[in-house]
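Technical note accompanying the year-one report. For the benefit of new consortium partners, we illustrate the data format agreed upon in the data management plan: each record pairs a sequence with a structure-token string. No post-processing was applied to the example shown here.
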Amino acid sequence: MPADFEKQSYWRQRFASETSFEWLVSSQYFMSIIEPYLVAACQEYPAIILHLGSGTSDLQNYFRKRGWIDVTNVDYEPLALERGRQLEEAAFGDVKMKYVVADATQLASDLPQNCKFNIVVDKSTVDAVACAGETALLRMASGVRDHLAEGGVWISLSYSQYRFELQQLPFEVEVVAKIPTPKLKANDPDVYYSCYLLRPK
């Protein structure tokens, strides 16, 4: 990824014209992988979902189609949140989910401390954050940990097989799916995206 993926100015310029875009895989495909884990995480409590780095994805619409309305979509670029509202309204005729300006690496200060979620999901946001280095990624992980309710989980999609090989990571990490990337040629090597399930230590 280019280094400017870590800069808010890049996203502001991009979202000025971009109305929808899906990172790595479609939201429909991603949901087919993660839904069993979402359901399992909501056995005892209603789903309270934090969607980190929502950008111009329509993932929030798949949450709502499944009946999960208590969804907080977070991005640090206000234009992304406006695009998210537009996508929800186009699909359902109204807006019921939350759209909050916050930095994924500064959740401790950008979200109320008593705001807890039993599911946190990001679709390649970890990859953009990683452009700023390991410290930024650990800040993101720490913020997610602080805002997870008891028994909550973090589900993260990344292009990297090594994304969470970090010292001081406050999570146990499990790869729950490896998604083959498209090949340009039949003899290209096999490359996979990784879907991670992270549980607090």
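Partners are asked to follow this layout when depositing records. The helical segments are 8-15, 27-41, 59-65, 78-92, 107-110, 125-130, 134-146.
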